[in-house]
Design goal:
Length: about 475
Amino acid sequence: MHCIAVLPLLSILAADPAPAAPAPATGTPPAAAPAASSSSSLIPERTNFTPGQVALTQVPSGLTVMAGKFATTFYGFVEADAINDSTRSFVDLAGMSKIALPGSLQGDNGRTMFGVRNSRFGFHIAAPEYAGIRSTGWLEMDFLGNQPGTPPNGSGTISEGAFWNNPTFRVRHFLLNLESDYVTLSFGQTWSLVGWQGAFQPNTVDIQGIPGELYSRTQQLRLGHKFRMGPTSLEIALAALRPPQMDAVVPDFQGGLKLTIDDWKGVQTIGATGTTISPAAIGLSGGTRQFLLPAASGLSSATGYVGAADIMIPVIPAKTRKAWTLTVLGEAADGSGDADLYTGLNGGMSIGAPAGYTGGAAAYGKVLDVDPGLVGWSSTTGALTTVNWESLIVSAQFYLPPEGRLWVGGLYSDTLSSNMDQFGSGSSAFWHETFWDANVFFDATQAIRFGLEYANFQQTYLSGATATDRRVQLSGFFIF
């Protein structure tokens, strides 16, 4: 096992969705964006994005209409996916769910899926400036919402046809923003600050979050400011967020710094749909959280934490989208009690029960008030203990002729828990996962994009057994 040391960090931006102004013709520099304020807005300032992606610091440029003095921009994308997996472990969004072990029905047989659930749309609404205050709202939704079971689940609560053909609408971002020249206040649901999520997300066909990637949205109150210092900018932010356990009473607290070198730029595709010109950047962020669970007598507490370091380097820089450019990104994170910041991660751990609890584990299960994967009763010490997780992810994207409309990319991630053996045993829980993929993208038109991916998921269980899923995914996107 290895240890990934990381520092605290912060951020926010919109990773997968939100379009932008049409890409300029080859060789023609994009039109200059309006001068940005010195504040740090979670809801976009206009920038030169190709359709389909908006970072939290950018505003979508889809269809904009005026209603009185309010400007409303409608944006999004239609996504169609065809997926083949070598096991029956996942649906379209794999995340870090458990992979079925070989020798089982689910582990020895594959499945094929077609879906449109990752399609999304959103609205960015800008109100007239008042007394030097710029107010905006951001609403974004997709169709990956909660449904009563994942087919086939044997419960009869949902059929395969209903799951795939009638996907559930859900909120991604609902955010209000008040921005002045001195400070920006944001309140609502959007990306967690830790990991400066959105700005450093890798380019992949796979529906995010992928294994080892900090990828989470939740409700929060945030303050931020961006200092412009010649060729560089420094963004600072602090946030109080919805705690992962509401009965712990204390909110999550996160903070971060992000430094950008504004004149050192490169082509970057965030997720599958957002291609833009981004400056080199490095981010540090971190946070702390509390847990409070019933004990044999009274309550017992535990403290969790997370720290992350992110980097984006335009190895072969470019100030317009073109061929023969290369961009590399990386993220390292170290935390405990932070599994909810990843997608679908709990490792199969058991929360357990405190020694001496009246009625034992059966009775304790009726009073549990925390999601699995975050904290539990250690089988080694008997104390309430947070679950450790470390992750490392590196990725690259290389743009080819014609005009950078064809490109290849790939990534590798490694995630492990150094204390999972205190919360599970044998084939019940995994402590280590690696993931890699290779992608090729092609923009057939300004609005139509195709992506093809081969991905390899591998988990190591506490028993030493290894489970592997191999995925091939073809996706098409209509980006507006």
